[in-house]
Amino acid sequence: MLNIVLFGPPGAGKGTQSERLIGKYNLVHLSTGDIFRANIKGETELGLLAKSYMDQGNLVPDEVTINMLKSEVLKHENAKGFIFDGFPRTNAQAQALDAFLSSIGTEITMMVGLEVKEEELRERLKKRAEVSGRPDDADPEVIQNRINVYKNETAPVKDYYEKQDKYIAVDGIGSIDDISDRLYAAIDNN
Ligand code: AMP
User: 146: which of 57, 62, 110, 187 fits an S-S bond (Cβ 3.0–4.6 Å)?
Assistant: First the structure.
């Protein structure tokens, strides 16, 4: 299986690039943010719980997120692999993911990190707010909190995969096509 963690701060382009990667490599896209948003829309219990965290730009608790992710993976028995987008976001999630994948006889192939400077991220999120309809894009304070949460809780996950020799950095600045080409090269040369 080809299991890729697509990593990067909010606004790095993970969603956009995931769409391209799933087509090219025939993978299943699992975006925890998208799954939470679908649950909010469907007014499920999980959605109600997640919303209170998401609206503030905080992380949904690990246990809830991990259980949801596991059940999503198990829905795709015949998958050739997965793009994990927005997961894992804490070291506890990364450890749980490793243990879970190992229990079903597979593992993370690599983490590809889209690297984008903070100033550019703020600009992109401001623009995205005009079209995304996401409440967490609309408020500059929530955007700043998401960036802070990324720095404090999520950035260490990169070290987790670096220690396993699985981290590949990709420059996330430039045209969408150029960034896709860099990602393809990173994946194909692995
Ligand atoms: P995203 O669409 O990836 O930007 O995620 C939007 C929001 O969903 C985040 O700010 C969190 O509140 C929540 N979320 C998404 N993925 C995770 C995760 N792996 N762990 C905890 N919370 C998450």
Answer: 57
